[in-house]
Amino acid sequence: MKTINLFLLICLCFTVSCKKDDANDSTTTAYTYKGNFQASAHPTSGIALVSTDKTKLLLENFKSDSGPNLNIYLTTSLNSVKADYIDLGDIKGLDGNYDYNIASSTDFTKYKYVVVWCVDFNVNFGYATLAP
Fold it and tell me: Which domain holds residue 86?
């Protein structure tokens, strides 16, 4: 009988220790603005999030095609030729989670699009529309 009780106690401890910790789930990231990426000229997907202190742009589960000279822009319009934009720099990767520094004074009522922009060919690969 002691063996059965010991076995059940070990199983219970193992089950409790293997439980998923939801607090570490990346979808619980605190944010002030959020948008889902949509394809434009190339397949692009994932989520764009602006941190609560508005100093980081986070790309989660991001995927896009490769291209020459791809940058991440915050823009006022999806047509960068006519848009006012903030260049956050070279794309950091094509498949994964990435973050970019942004000025805390950025006006997200004005800069409401995150765009994967091909500088060489002036092409919008994909974009996310940020909303509170």
Answer: 30-129
Dist. CA 96–CA 98, nearest whole Å: 7
Binned at pLDDT 50, 70 and 90, residue 81 comes out as low
Is 42 part of any domain? Answer: yes
Flag whether 11 is in a domain.
no
Within a domain: 16 = no
Number of folded domains in the chain?
1
Query: How many other CB atoms are there within 10 angstroms of residue 45's CB atom?
Result: 15
Confidence of residue 24 (pLDDT cuts 50, 70, 90): very low
pLDDT digits (tens, 9 = 90+) for 64-74: 999 999 999 99
Report which secondary-structure segment, H or E, holds 74.
strand 70-75
Alpha-carbon dihedral sign for residues 80, 85, 87, 92: negative
In a domain, 3, yes or no: no
- The pair of structure tokens assigned to 75 is 């823009």
Q: Taking 80 as the threshold, does the pLDDT of residue 21 lie above it?
A: no
